[in-house]
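Students often ask why inverse folding is considered easier than folding. One informal answer: many sequences map to the same fold, so there is more than one right answer. In these notes we will look at a single instance of the problem. The structure comes first.
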C-alpha cells in the first residue's frame, strides 16, 4: 500500500513539474530595444524622408505603433522610470547625471542656498537609481526569467548601483556612460583605478578587434545571450549608445547619405543617418535571430527611445553651455561631413531633447508579440516609460508586486484592442534647463514653468491643443483660463501624490536690479562666438579668438523686414549679419545674409544695415572684423522692424 501511494505521489509530482515547466515555457521572452536620442520623426515608419530604416519598417508592419508615446526630456530619468514604473518626481532621477558620483546618505536634494542672481532654490537630481527599488528586472528574475542588460546604463557610477545589483544576471556595460565607452570604435579606451593592483575597466565592456563598432558589438552580445537562453524565458534589456554623441559613425554609410537630400528640407545630417542605419541593422539582426531560432512567436519586443531628438548640439546655443575643444578630432570629423547642422530635426514637433515641448518628449514606440498584438496597427493612446513595467507584467499574467509603488498603468488592453487606458492624464516632471512640469489630458497640454524666462517661453503657463496645433505654436493660456485652472489643479494633485521636490524662493535673491542682471548676464543676451566680449568704460569690446568672430542673439520676436543699426569704432574690414526665422532649425547654408564694411575709426560712427527678413526674425548673428590685436567696440545695437517698436541694447548704460 505504501509503495502504491509513493508511486502515485511521485507521478503527481512529475505531472505538476511538467505543468510548471510548460507554464514557464509558455511565457514570452521580453526584449526591450532602447535607442538613445532617437526622435519621433527619425524613422521611415514615423514619416522621415531622409533616414533609411528598413528594419524599423519591418517591425512596424508586425507591431502596434504608438503615435503619442512619451519619454522624459533626458535619458537617465526615462531609464529610471522604465525600470521602476515611477514618475521621475517619485524616484528622484530627474536629470542625466548618472555618470557622476552618487550623493551620500542623508543628502538634501533641495539646496538651502543659491547665488543671489537666482530667484529659486531648484531641486537636484539623484545620480543613481536607488537600490531599494524593486525593478522590472528583479520582478522578472523572481518569476523565473534569465535577465541581461547590454549597453548604456547611466543609472549609477559606482558598483552598488550597477545593473548587476538591480536584477540583471548578465551585464555588459561601461562607466561613466552619458555616451559610449570612450568612443564608438574599439579599443574603447575607458579604464580607471577601480581595484587594488592596477587599472581595470569600469564596468564589463571589453575591447574587441581594432575598429569594431560598439553598436555591432552590443548586438553580438545580445545575440549570444538569446542563443544561450533560447530554452528558457529571458528578458533582454538592449540599450544602445547610438545615436548619442560623440558622433562615431561608419564612413561608408555616411558617404552614401552625404549624397542624399531630404525632399521636405527638414533632416539631412549624414552622420546621424549613418548612426541610425547602424542601429537599424542591429534591430534587423535581432529580428533575424528570433526567426532563425523560432522564437519570434513567443517573444514580446518593445522598441522605443529615451528622449526626443537632439536639435541643440553643435549649434550656437549648445556652445553656450558646453566647452568643446576646436581641435577635438571627433568634432572635426562631424563638421567635415555636416558643418554645424544639428543632428536631426523633429519638425513638425517643436524643439527637441532637454525641453518640455513635444520635440523633447514625444518618441517612437512599437510593440510586437505575434498572435497577441494585431500587426500593422496604430494607436493614439498616451503612454510613457512608467507604463512599461505594469504592461509587461500584465501581458505575462503576473501580479503587480506589493513592494513596489507603480505610477504607470498597463496598456495591455490597448495592445489587445480589448479596452482603453485606465488613466485620465499623463505628467512630465523636469526641474532643469527650462524647468517646469507638463500635463497631457486628451488633446490638451499644459506646461507650468517655475520661473519667468521670456527669452525661452511665453509666460508661466503655456496651453496647447495638440490636435489642432501639433507644433505648439499658439499659447492659448490667456484665451482659455478655465482650462488652465483645470489642468493646473491636476498638476497640484500630481505634485502632492508623488512627493515632488518643488522649487522654493531663494532667500538670498537680490531682485532684478541692474547690477544683478549684469552679474547674471553681462552682455544682456548677446553670446560671443570665436571672440571675447568685455564691458569696458561704457562699451562692449569685441576681441577675436578664432576665425569669423561674431555676436549672436536668440529668442527675438520681430516681423521682417528689419533694420539693424549699431554704433561702433575700432578695427576696419568687412562684416555681415546673418539671420534665422521661425520654423528654421538652423541657419541656411546660403542666403539670409546682409554685408557691410567698417572703416577704421577712432571716433564713434553709426552703421545701418537693411535686413530683408521674410517671416519672423528669431535669431541673429553679427559678424565683426575684430582681430586679437584690433578690437571692435560697440556703444549700442538696435533692431527696428518695419511695423513694430525697436529693440535696443545700450552697452553704455550697463
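Output (designed amino acids):
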Amino acid at each position: 500500500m505504501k509503495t502504491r501511494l509513493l508511486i502515485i505521489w511521485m507521478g503527481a509530482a512529475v505531472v505538476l513539474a511538467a505543468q510548471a515547466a510548460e507554464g514557464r515555457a509558455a511565457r514570452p521572452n521580453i526584449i526591450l530595444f532602447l535607442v538613445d536620442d532617437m526622435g519621433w520623426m527619425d524613422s521611415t515608419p514615423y514619416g522621415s524622408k531622409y533616414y533609411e530604416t528598413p528594419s524599423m519598417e519591418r517591425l512596424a508592419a508586425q507591431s502596434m505603433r504608438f503615435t503619442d508615446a512619451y519619454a522624459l526630456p533626458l535619458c537617465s530619468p526615462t531609464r529610471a522610470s522604465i525600470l521602476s514604473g515611477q514618475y521621475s518626481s517619485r524616484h528622484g532621477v530627474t536629470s542625466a547625471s548618472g555618470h557622476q558620483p552618487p550623493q551620500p546618505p542623508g543628502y538634501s536634494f533641495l539646496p538651502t542656498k543659491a547665488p543671489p542672481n537666482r530667484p529659486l532654490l531648484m531641486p537636484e537630481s539623484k545620480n543613481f537609481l536607488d537600490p531599494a527599488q524593486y525593478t522590472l528586472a528583479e520582478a522578472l528574475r523572481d518569476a523565473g526569467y534569465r535577465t541581461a542588460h547590454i549597453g548604456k546604463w547611466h543609472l549609477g557610477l559606482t558598483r552598488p548601483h550597477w545593473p548587476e545589483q538591480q536584477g540583471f544576471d548578465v551585464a555588459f556595460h561601461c562607466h561613466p556612460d552619458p555616451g559610449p565607452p570612450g568612443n564608438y570604435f574599439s579599443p574603447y579606451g575607458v579604464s580607471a583605478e577601480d581595484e587594488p593592483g592596477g587599472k581595470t575597466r569600469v564596468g564589463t565592456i571589453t575591447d574587441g578587434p581594432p575598429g569594431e563598432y560598439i553598436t555591432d558589438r552590443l548586438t553580438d552580445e545580445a545575440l549570444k545571450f538569446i542563443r544561450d537562453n533560447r530554452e528558457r524565458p529571458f528578458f533582454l534589456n538592449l540599450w544602445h549608445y547610438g545615436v548619442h554623441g560623440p558622433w562615431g559613425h561608419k564612413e561608408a554609410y555616411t558617404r552614401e547619405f552625404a549624397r542624399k537630400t531630404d525632399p521636405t528640407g527638414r533632416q539631412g545630417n549624414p552622420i546621424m543617418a549613418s548612426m541610425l542605419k547602424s542601429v537599424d541593422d542591429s534591430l534587423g539582426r535581432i529580428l533575424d535571430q528570433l526567426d532563425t531560432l523560432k522564437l519570434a512567436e513567443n517573444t514580446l519586443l518593445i522598441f522605443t527611445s529615451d528622449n526626443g531628438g537632439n536639435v541643440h548640439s553643435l549649434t550656437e546655443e549648445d556652445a553656450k553651455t558646453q566647452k568643446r575643444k576646436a581641435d577635438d578630432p571627433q568634432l572635426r570629423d562631424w563638421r567635415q561631413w555636416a558643418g554645424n547642422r544639428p543632428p536631426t530635426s523633429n519638425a513638425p514637433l517643436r524643439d527637441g531633447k532637454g525641453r518640455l515641448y513635444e520635440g523633447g518628449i514625444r518618441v517612437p514606440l512599437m510593440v510586437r508579440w505575434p498572435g497577441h498584438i494585431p500587426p500593422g496597427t496604430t494607436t493614439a493612446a498616451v503612454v510613457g516609460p512608467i507604463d512599461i513595467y505594469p504592461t509587461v507584467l500584465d501581458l505575462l499574467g503576473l501580479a503587480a508586486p506589493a513592494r513596489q509603488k507603480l505610477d504607470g498603468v498597463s496598456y495591455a488592453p490597448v495592445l489587445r484592442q480589448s479596452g482603453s487606458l485606465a488613466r485620465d492624464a499623463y505628467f512630465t516632471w523636469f526641474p532643469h534647463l527650462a524647468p517646469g512640469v507638463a500635463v497631457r489630458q486628451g488633446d490638451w497640454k499644459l506646461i507650468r514653468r517655475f520661473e519667468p524666462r521670456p527669452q525661452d517661453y511665453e509666460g508661466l503657463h503655456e496651453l496647447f491643443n495638440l490636435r489642432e496645433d501639433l507644433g505648439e505654436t499658439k499659447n492659448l493660456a490667456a484665451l482659455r483660463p478655465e482650462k488652465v485652472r483645470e489642468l493646473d489643479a491636476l498638476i497640484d494633485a500630481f505634485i502632492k501624490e508623488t512627493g515632488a521636490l518643488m522649487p522654493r524662493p531663494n532667500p538670498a535673491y537680490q531682485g532684478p536690479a541692474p547690477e544683478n542682471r549684469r552679474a547674471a548676464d553681462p552682455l544682456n543676451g548677446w553670446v560671443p562666438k570665436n571672440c571675447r566680449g568685455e564691458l569696458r568704460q561704457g562699451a562692449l569690446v569685441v576681441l577675436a579668438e578664432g576665425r569669423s568672430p561674431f555676436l549672436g542673439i536668440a529668442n527675438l520676436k520681430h516681423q521682417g523686414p528689419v533694420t539693424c543699426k549699431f554704433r561702433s569704432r575700432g578695427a576696419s574690414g568687412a562684416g555681415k549679419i546673418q539671420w534665422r526665422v521661425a520654423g528654421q532649425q538652423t541657419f541656411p547654408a546660403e542666403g539670409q545674409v546682409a554685408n557691410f564694411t567698417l572703416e577704421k575709426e577712432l571716433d564713434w560712427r553709426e552703421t545701418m544695415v537693411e535686413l530683408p527678413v521674410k517671416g519672423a526674425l528669431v535669431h541673429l548673428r553679427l559678424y565683426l572684423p575684430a582681430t586679437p590685436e584690433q578690437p571692435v567696440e560697440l556703444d549700442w545695437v538696435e533692431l527696428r522692424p518695419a511695423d513694430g517698436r525697436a529693440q535696443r541694447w545700450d552697452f553704455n548704460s550697463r
